[in-house]
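Notebook, student rotation project (T.W.).
Task set for the rotation: take a protein with a known small-molecule partner, predict the structure of the complex, and write up what can be learned from the model alone. Partner molecule chosen: guanosine-5'-triphosphate. Sequence and SMILES entered below by T.W., checked by me.
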Amino acid sequence: MQGIVYRSTGSWYNVKDEDGRMWNARMKGIFKLDDITSTNPIAVGDIVEIDLENDGESSVMISKIHDRRNYINRQSPRMKHHQHIVAANLDQSVLLATIKDPRTSQGFIDRFLVACEMYHVPAMVIFNKIDAYKEKDLNQLEVYAEMYESIGYQVFAISTKENIGIDEVKEVLKDATTLISGHSGVGKSTFINAVIPGSTIKTQDVSGWSGKGQHTTTFAEMYDLPFGGRIIDTPGMREFGLVGLDRQELSGYFPEMRQRLNDCQFNNCLHTNEPGCAIKEAVAEGTIDENRYVSYYNILESIEEKKW
Ligand SMILES: Nc1nc2c(ncn2[C@@H]2O[C@H](COP(=O)(O)OP(=O)(O)OP(=O)(O)O)[C@@H](O)[C@H]2O)c(=O)[nH]1
Ligand SMILES: [Mg+2]
Ligand SMILES: [Zn+2]
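Predicted structure of the complex:
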């Protein structure tokens, strides 16, 4: 039988078969996946083969993982050089962000976008909690929306609490498999409850964001959308570790830089101190946003140089 993984807790998986029946599944033996050292060989969204266990009523064994169309990785929180596959076979990836309570920084947003570019998963940014924004927060929102839209990313502004902008977002979720990421407390689970009537995913209590950064969601889990498509809730994250990123490749993951790379004098230009750099020129002219360049520079600095 073939099924799709909806939830993974590490040792047990929830797998839905083609008839819509949900099974408890375990992994048979040890899988060795090519190229990747992963702390979780099977991820939410994986398409797997399942076989009934002899005696089990509803428990099955996973005997095969089908090739992934794509996947999103994070650095394992425990082992720095290991990767943790968050989800596989995605159509799009959403960052749920907030200007305040908690604040999502531009650096974090840009790292998220770079990760999506690396994995070839279309990305968008949704700002939540606009009901709580003061004038300066709304101005910041405006600045972000204009900047990210100008380089080709869709931006939405919503309030899950006041039901503002939700219908517009439903349109882009329809019939797609979407991963939702973001800091703890931005409202990921609340948002999913809002788009799936009757759903009761656990969320932080009504007192709202406490500033303590407690994680309410602890495992990635996928849900079917009543209007078609699927959505994956994830635990809040503090940082986006960019695994396997090469310094030379980085500018190719900034769409506004990618289109200008051929104009640099040197083809191995890192756009820092090199003469004849088209990227720095565009930043000086204002055609590339200065803060995006700052994000580029910070990420570049954070990448260890390859030691041969
Ligand atoms: N003011 C306001 N509060 C909201 C909104 N959406 C969610 N919240 C509140 O934000 C808090 C956090 O919501 P959660 O849905 O638990 O956040 P999460 O992103 O799932 O957090 P983790 O599971 O820890 O990653 C809750 O108290 C929500 O009620 C909104 O649009 N406006
Ligand atoms: Mg949650
Ligand atoms: Zn350059």
